[in-house]
Amino acid sequence: AQKITQTQPGMFVQEKEAVTLDCTYDTSDPSYGLFWYKQPSSGEMIFLIYQGSYDQQNATEGRYSLNFQKARKSANLVISASQLGDSAMYFCAMRDPSGGSNYKLTFGKGTLLTVNP
Amino acid sequence: NAGVTQTPKFQVLKTGQSMTLQCAQDMNHEYMSWYRQDPGMGLRLIHYSVGAGITDQGEVPNGYNVSRSTTEDFPLRLLSAAPSQTSVYFCASSYFGTGVYNEQFFGPGTRLTVL
Description:
Helix content of chain B: under 10%
Largest interface: A-B, 29 and 31 residues
Radius of gyration of chain B: 13 Å
Order of helices and strands of chain B: EEEEEEEEEEE
Shape of chain B: globular
Largest sheet of chain B: 7 strands, mixed
Oligomer: heterodimer
Helix content of chain A: under 10%
Largest sheet of chain A: 6 strands, mixed
C-alpha cells in the first residue's frame, strides 16, 4: 500500500482564488511528520510547511495552511489567494519511524497546479 | 552557507559507462540521502546515510553505490549505466533529531540521460 497518496495529478485554479491539494497517508506509528514541498518548473525543491502528528493546531505559513485531519489520515495543503507564481508541482511527504529510521522521507507522486490569470 | 550542492547539473552517458554524481553540504548535517525523480513517480529514495561510514539502501538501490567517508560528502556511483537510470537525481540532507521534524534541504538536482 502506498504510504502517501495524492489523488489529483493536476489542478487548475483562477488567480486570487483558494485551492486545496489533497494528501492522505498511511502509518501505524503515532509519531510522524508531514511535509509539503513545491517544485517550480526550474526544478528545485522548496520546503513549504510541516505538520507534526502531535501538533494540536493546523500549521500555517503565510498563504499556506495545512488542513490536518488525523482520524482521516489526511494532510491537505490549502493555498489562499493563488498567484501565478504558485504554478508548480506540489509534493506531500511523510517522515515516520517505520523501518527503524526516523529520517526517511516518503513522497507522494505530486499534483501539478496551474494558476490561470 | 552554500547549502547542498550537486555536480554536474547535466550529464549524458552511454549505456555501460560509469560515473559519480557528487553531493556536498556545509551545514554539518548527519543525514544525507539520494532520490531519483521520474515523471509520475514522485521522488524515490535510492540510498541514505546517517553519518560518516554508515549507509543503507532505500526503495530503489539497484545499480547504485554510495559511500560516506566524511560528514560533508555523499557521492552516488553508477557502475554501469542503463537507460532505465535516465532521471533527475536529488541529494538532500538534514539534522539528526529525536523527533520526526527534520526538514530535508535539497540540492538543485542532476539531470542524467543514458543513451
